[in-house]
Amino acid sequence: MTIEIAKRQYKNPQFNLRMPQLLKDQIEEVVVETGRSMNAEIVRRLADSFEPSVKEDEFPTPEQVRKLLEESKVRIQKNARRYALETIMEYVNDGQANAILDFSEQLPDIMTQEEKVPYIQPVIEELVGLGYDIVKSKGHGWYEIKF
């Protein structure tokens, strides 16, 4: 007697995806709120990233530009915070007693160091508020975080 196991048929191709644990945790939090599966949430967010909010062949309205600018500021701030958290955890997982945060590579290249400060400063202030000892490099865009 042979038992056949039915293979589940998917209409879309599948592939394995590796991602940082922090990102996976964030997605899991969102799916609890939205009620979507992790796969559906990832697919939705990825698809959204390809949808232009402004058509490529049309000038955006000033209102659209202001909205896009505000969205960019929020995204840049979140990216700076996420980078700090992931970097600290990498150093901790490697058994290190301190971490180096180099924001120069994490924020848009077009920004000067002075323009990056409003995005970096809230992250540094949050870490100081948590009790971290932080030393800023002289003349560079990196910080040493001591645990």
Q: What does this entry look like structurally?
A:
- The longest helix has 32 residues, at 62-93.
- Strands 1-3-2 form a 3-stranded antiparallel sheet, covered by helices on one side.
- The chain has a domain at 61-146.
- The protein is built from 4 helices and 3 strands; from the N terminus they run αααβαββ.
- Helix content is 52%, strand content 10%.
- The protein is mainly alpha-helical.
Query: Largest sheet, order of strands side by side?
Result: 1-3-2
Order of helices and strands: HHHEHEE
Percent range for β-strand residues? 5-15%
The gyration radius over C-alpha positions equals 21 Å
Number of strands: 3
- Poorly predicted residue ranges: none
N- to C-terminal distance: 63 Å
Largest sheet: 3 strands, antiparallel
DSSP helix fraction: 40-55%
Mean pLDDT: 86
Shape: flat
| Count of helical regions | 4
Structural class, by secondary structure, is: mainly alpha
Task: Give the SSE layout.
Elements: H1 21-34, H2 38-50, H3 62-93, E1 98-102, H4 113-129, E2 133-136, E3 142-146
Antiparallel strand pairs: 1-3, 2-3
Helix pairs in contact: 3-4
